[in-house]
User: What shape does this take?
Amino acid sequence: MLTLSVQTMLEVTAGELLAGPTSTMVNGCAIDSRSVEPGAVFVAFEGVRADGHDFIAGALAEGARAVIVTRADDQVHAAFRSAARAETALVLVKDARSALEAVSSWHRDRLMCPVIGVTGSTGKTTTKDFLRSVLATSLKVVATKENRNNELGVPLTLMDAGVETEALVVEMAMRGRGQIAHLCQVARPTHGLVTNVGVSHIELLGSEAAIASAKGELVRAIPQSGRVFLNGDDGWTGVLAESAEAPIVRYGLGEAADVRAEDVTVAVDGTPAFSLVFAGTSIDVKLPVPGRHNVYNALAASAVALHLGLSLAEVAAGLEGATFSKWRMESFQSASGLTVINDAYNANPTSMRAAIAALGDVPTKGRRIAVLGDMAELGSLAELAHFQLGGEIADSSVDILVTVGERGRRIAEGALAAGMHVDSVRPCATAEEASEVLDDETEPGDTVLVKASRVMGLEVVVEGMIQPRV
Assistant: This one.
């Protein structure tokens, strides 16, 4: 974890000491007063919905030893004095984000472990979770927590690592051209993993080729001494490989893959199993999460771990014991007898198809019900992509389709146009309306998939099945 003196903090951030001693030592960093641990530095950000300067006293009460602020008005000084201790320091900087990055960059210089950057259009969080679990079988690992994969989360992830860390896994999200390149400047990854290239974020970048170029910012950032790991079955891998300075390791189902899966099967509970093949040897693996598409995520993690020297047995144990971030193909039984698959964190056409296929692989005593909402950031492709998805659902194993939102209605229209019976399609305007439909429609034994982009808030639907109306 981050450890530095206030004096060093002042030098690194070009900050001004407003109060407290320069000799104070800081351990850890937080940008949310609720997550401050004793000894940490609290960085007060002025956000759209909240201003960190309003929570200075709370951060100090939690044990913060230093506070970084961007203004020095009476309110800030009063809040600091109300809870400060003798060793507590108050530092003024021009820009909070620049200060956070400067401190994390200083800390990054002191890390000696491999730093693995992970990005991709789909599957990056699940891949990160697999990789964390696999590496942890033999190494001390720090990995991105929750959704800390942006310009604020990446520095915080770096500062979670310490001299004892033997591998650091950093998930990198993208909202536009140049963002991953910037995150790479902060994290300086030694290894890079791209899960795939799809049409997510096409509204921001305009074309799939532009998305590939943006994902390739990670590939181009990896030094010759590192490795780049690419999905050998993805159509953009050749383009990405051409831009790499580091050697390429390919994973996939094809014979040319350096790390591959053979004999893929799906069990009655929807979880896939396969033979993991590397360097002429193999081992059988059964994944703990449903969905055939997760074989690729597991292979990606395996490729990195095998390159770092783990054995096939260690990799298999890590894959089979993996746990996953919230809202990613979470499966549970509700009190009313439903099997619920909660994949409501994000969605694009590729991940939607994978989730529908996973729903078809799960055995059910009742019907298969898909609750699907809008897919965001598809730009000019949005209307067609939603309509086409509906047509594919009509030809799938889905018995009842419940859609949420304006774009979701296009999914319903596509399903109806492809021949799905009108009684099997339920367009809804809101998540609350969809919950009411499910209350009336579902029966014990049914299996319900919930998926949409995060902005749709379909956790309301999941919560409704956990705690149904009475």
